[in-house]
Amino acid sequence: MKAYILKNFFNMKEKILVTGGTGYIGSHTTVELMNAGYDVVIIDNLSNSNEKVIDGIEKITGKRPVFVKGDCTDLETLKKLFEDNPGIKGIINFAASKAVGESVQKPLLYYRNNLNTLINLLQLMPEYGVEGIVFSSSCTVYGEPDVNPIDETAPIKCATSPYGNTKQISEEIIEDYVASGAPIKSIILRYFNPIGAHPSGCIGELPLGVPQNLVPFLTQAAAGIRPELTVFGDDYNTPDGSCIRDYIDVVDLAKAHVIAMERMLNGQDHDAIEIFNLGTGNGLSVLELINAFQEATGVKVPHKIGPRRAGDIEKIWANPYKANHVLGWKAEADIKDTMRNAWQWQCNCNRK
Ligand code: UD1
Description:
By secondary structure, the chain is of the alpha/beta class. It has helices at 2-9, 24-35, 53-61, 75-84, 100-105, 107-127, 162-179, 214-222, 250-266, 286-297, 321-327, 335-351, and strands at 15-19, 39-44, 66-69, 88-93, 132-138, 185-191, 193-195, 229-232, 244-245, 247-249, 273-278, 284-285, 303-306. The structure holds uridine-diphosphate-N-acetylglucosamine (UD1).
């Protein structure tokens, strides 16, 4: 009772485990959770991130999350984490490999990382009194849509990569586990294309090696780190011939996780599993995005048109109606602000 009164007095909220919390989306979500009063424990194996990200989080929030360097595929590591940090009420699971091309080369790595992590977390949740898990899924589960914008009732198509397959299987694992009577709730968030960086310039996307995704490659090309950006195809059935995506600001995306967590832990009468698309509802082509960057920053992006990339979807953008009306969340950032933040982050990285 005393702890409850103290928590309310200081606007403290539940303790949340963020797996993959030093990664791109994980770090931005940690910031928003901490700003909302949640107590955060991060676990990350640093396979695709850096412990210095914790400093960036502290700079923004004025608080330091608990950090455990460890691998979620190891059940004993997770058990120790729950023993050492009692009272975790919710999990946001970002710990997963996410490069589409690499997943084709190393499928077992993807199945092992992405599925074992989820299975371990689900198994331990009831044992340690964890009530809910927010799962990072992807619009990749829809494959090439028959219609755009796409909503959550659209059919799940055959996955085009092992990465995409891990997202589909993960959603099914959660559904089967809840259907078996496991005493947990879950919110599955299907992200469209997260881009940008925190406006403070303290955290952003830190791809190791050559970036696979469009925006980090674009900002590196603009900074002269890469000779030029290749636009993968200009012969698609779209107005300018380049592919169309729904680019969502990473801070907007992070805020949706806080709302989802609040709903899962404190909401009443909701289904045990809920699924939401997280996108802006607007499609932008690759060439339009390059223009938006150039207009926002005044910096030229050296680029050329190249062949199509195998496995690319032609066009996909979200119908975010359900997230807008049920979660009460809406993507708000202006694309030019998002581009300026991405550029500021790139410039900060260059100085380090
Ligand atoms: C893919 C996945 C998505 C995943 C994301 C994270 C699919 C269908 N989508 O998104 O689920 O969350 O990766 O890694 O599996 N492009 C260029 N030049 C470049 C890089 C990209 O033109 O150098 C174009 C691509 O062709 C695409 C767009 O930019 O049209 C976005 O590509 P990218 O950032 O890699 O994301 P997706 O492939 O859409």
